[in-house]
């Protein structure tokens, strides 16, 4: 059984303008929650291409959408979404894509399965790979046990935004010389003991675990590539919608969307200060229109129903040329 409650289920579908017979892509199929909504919108004459890099998710989706796969309404593909251009070509979908969605990060199923090694709350092997095939040999265990201290500190600081990154890296290296890390709870305990105080409500190892996961799966590079290549394969009038869960991801979505909409990253657009001629020239050539100036955020009710939605942000861009 694959347990994952989709975040912004209705909101993302409402922003897509999909109709019967359309083609759309779910880049992070996971448990298939959003895909099911997409399938309902495009009906029996439409096609949904579902991508996930995790074999366990793909096995689950294979059985969940068995009938739709047989009926050729649903195409299932195990791959990373940065390969979207190649995938679209492979399935001959190049000219019709009306919507692309991505609900990035890990699923509740991945987090809650101790054997996958994502969680500091259970004891499992230090793995954290979304794709556990031989193509991706670098697990969290290799990062923690083999990388030089300075690199470890950089990873924890950059991808975890952890102010005590150097202190944690030093403690990890000291401990691994005696006894290498094997399990998630072992690492979580060491990180907790390395911190000078623990006054936050969050578990002290949250930021370190986030950093390792992002590094192991190259999550930020994946996201940047998806926005650029995903947008390029959309049909005119098509929409790209991304749900992100932390500030590092949202910064990338915001920056890339602004580039596609012809807005320099730091350009402040206001009705009181019209764009200069130079800015207008760039703006008029642009391919994208940002659908809402601010991201969609969860309501209190959504957070109560699904605490994972707490930090979620949804941004949407439309291809206008
Ligand atoms: C938050 S879950 C998506 C849940 C899904 N929207 C649902 O309603 O069930 C994220 C999923 O995206 C997959 N994923 C994350 N990064 C990926 C990437 N770069 N390429 C392909 N799949 C990815 C993960 O394996 C995970 O199954």
The shape, in one word, is globular
Bound molecules: S-adenosylmethionine
- The N- to C-terminal Cα distance equals 43 Å
Domain count: the total is 2
CATH second-level architecture of the largest domain: 3-Layer(aba) Sandwich
Helix content: 40-55%
- In CATH, the topology of the largest domain is named Rossmann fold
Annotation field: number of helices? 15
Strand order of the largest sheet: 3-2-1-4-5-7-6
Q: What are the low-pLDDT stretches, counting only 5+ consecutive residues below 50? A: none
Helical/strand content category? alpha/beta
Q: How much strand?
A: 5-15%
Assembly of the depicted chains: single chain
- Rg calc: 21 Å
Let me know the number of strands: 7
The SSE order reads HEHEHHEHEHHHHHHHEHHEHE
Question: Can you give a write-up of this model?
Answer:
By secondary structure, the chain is α/β, with parallel strands linked by helices. It folds into 2 domains: 9-109 and 219-319, Vaccinia Virus protein VP39 (Rossmann fold); 126-217, Orthogonal Bundle (DNA polymerase, domain 1), CATH 1.10.150. Helix content is 44%, strand content 12%. It has a 7-stranded mixed beta sheet with strand order 3-2-1-4-5-7-6, sandwiched between helices. Strand 1 (23-26), helix 2 (33-42) and strand 2 form a beta-alpha-beta unit. The protein is globular, with a radius of gyration of 21 Å. The model has no long low-confidence stretch (mean pLDDT 93). Bound molecules: S-adenosylmethionine (SAM). The site of S-adenosylmethionine has 22 residues, from helix 2 and strand 2.
């Amino acid at each position: 059984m694959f347990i994952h409650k989709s975040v912004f289920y209705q909101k993302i579908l409402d922003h897509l303008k999909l109709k019967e017979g359309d083609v759309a892509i779910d880049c992070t199929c996971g448990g298939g929650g959003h895909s099911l909504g997409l399938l309902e919108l495009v009906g029996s004459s439409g096609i949904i291409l579902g991508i996930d890099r995790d074999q366990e998710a793909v096995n689950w989706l294979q059985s969940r959408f068995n009938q739709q796969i047989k009926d050729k309404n649903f195409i299932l593909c195990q791959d990373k979404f940065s390969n979207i251009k190649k995938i679209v070509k492979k399935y001959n979908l190049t000219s019709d894509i009306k919507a692309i969605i991505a609900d990035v990060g890990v699923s509740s199923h991945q987090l809650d399965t101790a054997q996958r090694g994502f969680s500091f709350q259970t004891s499992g092997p230090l793995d954290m790979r979304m794709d556990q095939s031989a193509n991706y040999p670098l697990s969290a265990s290799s990062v923690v046990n083999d990388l030089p201290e300075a690199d470890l500190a950089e990873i924890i600081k950059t991808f975890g935004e952890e102010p005590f990154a150097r202190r944690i890296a030093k403690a990890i290296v000291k401990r691994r010389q005696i006894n290498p890390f094997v399990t998630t709870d072992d690492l979580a305990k060491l990180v907790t003991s390395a911190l000078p105080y623990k006054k936050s409500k969050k578990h002290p190892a949250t930021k370190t675990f986030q950093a390792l996961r992002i590094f192991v799966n190259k999550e930020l590079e994946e996201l940047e590539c998806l926005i650029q290549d995903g947008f390029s394969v959309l049909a005119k009038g098509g929409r790209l919608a991304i749900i992100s869960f932390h500030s590092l991801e949202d910064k990338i979505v915001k920056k890339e969307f602004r580039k596609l909409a012809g807005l320099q990253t730091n350009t402040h657009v206001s009705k009181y200060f019209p764009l200069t001629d130079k800015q207008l020239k760039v703006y008029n050539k642009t391919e994208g229109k940002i659908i809402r100036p601010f991201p969609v955020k969860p309501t209190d009710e959504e957070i109560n129903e699904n605490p994972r939605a707490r930090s979620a942000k949804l941004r949407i861009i439309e291809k206008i040329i």
